[in-house]
Structures are given as C-alpha cells and as structure tokens.
C-alpha cells in the first residue's frame, strides 16, 4: 500500500520497509481525493479499503504482474517474497504473467539457508517472528491448479554488484537483506528524512549501496552524510560494517584518477588544491619544529585570519586562534606551581 501511495504521488520511497512513512492520513486522503476521485476522509480504515479496492481492480485487469524478490533459492528454483498486506501475492498470482526482478546477491544456495535469513529480516524490520504472508513461488501454474500465473520470468540484476563483489571489503555491502534497521537508528536519517538522499535507497545502507549502482559522480555527498556514530553497524543483523565502508567510500571519492579508484566514478570529489592543503597540514603536524613555529605565529598574528574560509563560514563563525596556546598556558601553570612549592 505504501508503494502504491508514493507511486500515485510521483515520489520515491522514503524508507525501505515503510515507503510512505513521510505522509500522514490527511495527506493520503487528499491524494486519494485528487487522484482517484473519491470522497475525502481522514478515517485510516476507510483509506485502506479505498486503496485495496483500487488495487484489486488493477490486479484483475493487469496482463503482467511485476514483483521484487527477497530471496531466490537456487536448489529448488523458488522465489521467496515476504509481506503483510497480501498485495504482493495478488500481483504474482492474479495476472497471467509474473515477472520477478531481483539483484544477483539475493540468490542463496539451499532452502534451509533461507530460514535464518527470513527470521532476521522480519524481526529486524518489523519486530515480528514472521510476516503475515510468506510467498514461495517455484514456477507457473500447473494444468491441475486453479490459480497462479501461466508464465513466470526472473530478471537478475547486476547493476554494479559484480564490481562491488570484486573488492574484498566492499562486497560486504551485498550482505544487506533490506530490513531497514540501520535507518531506524540513524540520527542523520531520522532528522533529514529519506527523500533528502534523492535515490531509491535512503539512509545508511543507501549511502553504501547507491554509489555502486549509479556511481559516486551522481551521489558525491552520500559517503559524507554520516556522523560515523556507529549505530547502524551495531544494529545491522548481518553485521555489515557500515561506518568502515563509508570511510572507504570517502577515500575512493577523493582519489586521483591516477590511483585507479575501485568504486564506479571514484575520484568524483578529487581536488588538487584540497590534496595540497592536506599535505601541508600533514607536514605541519608531523614536524615538531615547524609546528612550534606555526603555533608561535598563529598566537601572535591571529587577527590576520581571513573572515571567509569557504563553506564553513556559511553557517559558522570564522575560526580565530587563541592569543596563547595550550602549551604556553600549561608551562605557566606548572611554573607557578613550582614557585609556590619552593616558597613553602
């Protein structure tokens, strides 16, 4: 239902599990009134009935039903889909043709491997032991069966996945089971919302999945849109080290083309000027003599600090060095302590 609502309004999902979580009942009521021509109502149950009635008609009239896949089992050729509303089952059984689309990382070897994965998915996504519907589709309708599609087609998507798999660290991204737990605990996502990311996958997992699919050139700010607090990595049921992967993507983002970045469109934010500045900064902080000289000049000529230091001063005051460094204050403090001790 959430997917139908955002599609009806021409939007992208704002959450993997709850795609229309950004809308309240009043907004949905106005949307149904404007798009479906029904009477506007704020009653949630009535809105659900309107959505179901409309979707049922579309399911019965459709020639083709398209669905995703949570897990594809190689041993039996089975497609597994989990849901709570029943619309997924309708779209895969009512139309005469079912087309399933899934990423190649969703393929598991044996049926027994799915049991712990489904348990992790439902518990982490919704806090349920199991979803209301667990659909297992192993082929088209047989001659003696009364329902189901006459044809079943499976489309396996690569879309950057094999490139991610080729990297020993980045391949951990492909372990994602799309539960959305990382979004629910991310302080950035909970404040800015899913549409801020501008792509299908928002939140922490979107920041490490999307660069492989569309390239860092299209989403250069994704890896930096994180406080690296580590909450996403802690709650991930499959233990994807999201903070570590974000740091890796930040490095790939500023690599020189000569360094052969390992991620699609790596080096999207490469800047010779920035690279030179950081080299100067590294030299300054690794040479005690140069550092002391810099500290002496900064404490005495702080008033010469520029008032405009780029994007920083758009939202912050320009940094001004203190008149005395911490080293000077510490020496003065220790000296005064020694003087008092000598007098006593």
Tally of helical runs: 15
Strand content: 5-15%
Q: Quote the CATH topology of the largest domain.
A: Fumarate Reductase Iron-sulfur Protein, Chain B, domain 2
Query: Mean pLDDT, rounded to whole units?
Result: 91
Tell me the number of structural domains: 4
Report the uncertain regions: none
Question: Could you say what the CATH architecture of the largest domain is?
Answer: Orthogonal Bundle
Radius of gyration: 28 Å
Cα(first) to Cα(last) distance is: 81 Å
User: Which structural category do the helix and sheet elements fall into?
Assistant: alpha/beta
Strand order of the largest sheet: 5-2-3-6
Helix content: 40-55%
List keywords for this structure.
Fumarate Reductase Iron-sulfur Protein, Chain B, domain 2; 344 residues; alpha/beta; 15 helices; 44% helix; three-stranded parallel β-sheet; 4 domains; Rossmann fold
Give an account of the 3D structure.
It is a single chain. By secondary structure, the protein is of the alpha/beta class. It has 4 domains: 1-61, no CATH class; 68-157, NagB/RpiA/CoA transferase-like (Rossmann fold, 3-Layer(aba) Sandwich), CATH 3.40.50; 170-270, Alpha-helical ferredoxin (Fumarate Reductase Iron-sulfur Protein, Chain B, domain 2, Orthogonal Bundle); 273-343, no CATH class. It contains 15 helices and 7 strands. The protein has helices at 2-8, 25-36, 44-61, 87-93, 114-126, 161-165, 181-185, 187-192, 203-214, 231-235, 242-253, 272-286, 288-300, 312-315, 326-343; strands at 64-67, 71-73, 78-83, 97-103, 107-108, 133-137, 151-157. The strands form 2 sheets. A 4-stranded mixed beta sheet has the order 5-2-3-6, with helices on both faces. A 3-stranded parallel beta sheet has the order 1-4-7. A hairpin with a 4-residue loop joins strand 2 and strand 3. Helix 2 (25-36) packs across helix 3, helix 9 (203-214) runs parallel beside helix 11 and helix 12 (272-286) packs across helix 13 (288-300). It is elongated. The termini are far apart.
């Amino acid at each position: 239902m959430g997917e139908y609502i955002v599609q009806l309004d021409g939007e992208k999902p704002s959450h993997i599990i709850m795609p229309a979580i950004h809308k309240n009942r009043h907004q949905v009521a106005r949307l149904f009134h404007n798009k479906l021509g029904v009477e506007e109502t704020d009653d949630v149950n009535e809105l659900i009935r309107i959505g179901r009635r409309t979707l049922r008609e579309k399911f019965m009239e459709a020639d083709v039903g398209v669905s995703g896949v949570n897990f594809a089992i190689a041993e039996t050729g089975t497609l597994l889909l989990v849901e709570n509303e029943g619309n997924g089952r309708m779209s895969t059984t009512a139309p005469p043709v079912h087309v399933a689309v899934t990423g190649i990382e969703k393929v598991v070897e044996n049926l027994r491997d799915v049991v712990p994965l489904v348990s992790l998915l439902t518990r982490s996504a919704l806090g349920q032991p199991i979803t209301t519907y667990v659909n297992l589709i192993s082929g088209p309708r047989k001659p003696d069966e009364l329902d189901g599609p006459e044809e079943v087609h499976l489309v396996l998507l690569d879309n950057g996945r094999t490139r991610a798999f080729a990297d020993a660290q980045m391949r951990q991204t492909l372990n994602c089971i799309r539960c959305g737990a990382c979004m629910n605990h991310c302080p950035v996502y909970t404040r800015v919302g899913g549409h801020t990311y501008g792509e299908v996958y928002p939140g922490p997992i979107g920041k490490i999945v999307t660069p492989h699919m569309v390239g860092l050139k299209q989403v250069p700010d994704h890896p930096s849109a994180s406080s690296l607090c580590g909450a996403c990595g802690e709650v991930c049921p499959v233990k994807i080290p999201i903070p570590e992967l974000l740091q890796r993507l930040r490095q790939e983002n500023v690599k020189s083309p000569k360094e052969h970045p390992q991620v699609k469109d790596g080096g999207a934010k490469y800047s010779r000027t920035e690279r030179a500045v950081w080299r100067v900064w590294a030299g300054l902080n690794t040479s005690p003599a140069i550092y002391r000289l810099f500290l002496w000049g900064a404490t005495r000529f702080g008033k010469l600090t520029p008032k405009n230091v780029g994007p920083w001063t758009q939202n912050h005051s320009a940094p001004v060095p203190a008149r005395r460094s911490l080293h000077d204050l510490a020496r003065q403090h220790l000296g005064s302590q020694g003087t008092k001790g000598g007098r006593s």
